[in-house]
Amino acid sequence: MRTKRILLKLSGEALMAGRSHGIDPDRLNDYIEEIIEVSRMGTQLGIVIGGGNIFRGMSGVEAGFDRVKGDYMGMLATVINGLALQSAFHSKGAASRLFTAIRMEPVAEYYYKPKVIEALENNEIVIFSGGTGNPYFTTDTAASLRAVEMEADVMLKGTRVDGVYTSDPEKDPEANKYDELTFGEAIEKELRILDQTAFTMCKENDLPIIVFNMNKKGNLKKLVSGEKVGTLVKI
Q1: Between 3.10.20.30, 3.30.70.270, 1.10.10.10, 3.40.1160.10, what CATH number should domain 5-234 receive?
Q2: What is the distance between the alpha carbons of residues 14 and 97, in angstroms, rounded to a whole number?
């Protein structure tokens, strides 16, 4: 599957590498270099990054926070990660734009689809932060929403495993990897690829999802070059 325009979903936890929290500079640099390489191949890129390395709304609820306030704290964490990405792109001479779902100029631009499409067509890397701007929605849902809005060819979910398995491969050595699945099969087998809201949005808008190991250097480039990497989920 060759792709011209993609939405890359990254978890905030991925930026921690071996740390207990925060951002590992080496991991951030690895991601940035690969994303820039793919961008310079002519692929238009949007990125949604989570905030779990800084604060996760649901963990706040468990600690006694109000759910709405906890979710807003999580949204702000994604803005911090977005700023880190943008700063890293800038340091390497790559043009990027940071958009937020909640107004906070001059930190970043407020999300507006025409500006996003203009940036993509100018081959600027677009970073979406602040989730959907609403509590009770995950960054998976934000990623699927932005992918549909930016008319992406595919949504790539970068994880630390190399695809979707019959069970958790980190816990079950007998787990088998799927190379390809339909949305219907994923629902029937109760495979947790994205949260249910995000998954339904992708299914209803015929947006393919590829789950792959972002921590393996070269995987992103292989994917956008049309090589089979990870697990493809489609109609």
Answers
A1: 3.40.1160.10
A2: 21
